[in-house]
Specification:
Length: 109
């Protein structure tokens, strides 16, 4: 959720010509990370939750790519890129930790 909030805040400074382009794509990818986690958690079964976590990691990779594109296009300063990438890395650690925890619990059952 912190990553999403930061992306919304920083992308508000992107050129208005990107509102339906990179700004929208970056925001949608960022929102899909916690949304997929919530949806997977709300479904029944570990397999569905694990699948949702995997989708979240894919969305996170999209976010990271779009952050780098924004920097290359000059829409994002290096310090902002660093902040967003650190948040993304931490989010990825959390998702992978959830996946590993589920795997350990599945083996123990």
């Amino acid at each position: 959720m912190d990553l999403v909030a930061s992306i919304y805040e920083i992308s508000a400074e992107f050129p208005k010509s990107e509102i339906y382009g990179l700004t929208s794509q970056l925001r949608r990818a960022a929102v899909s990370v916690p949304s997929n986690i919530a949806e997977g958690y709300g479904r029944s079964g570990r397999r569905e939750f694990a699948h949702a976590l995997s989708i979240s990691l894919g969305s996170l990779a999209e976010v990271e790519t779009q952050i780098l594109i924004a920097e290359r296009l000059g829409y994002l300063a290096a310090d902002s890129r660093a902040v967003l990438m650190e948040l993304s890395t931490e989010t990825g650690r959390i998702v992978v930790g959830l996946m590993n925890s589920m795997e350990r619990h599945a083996k123990a059952s």
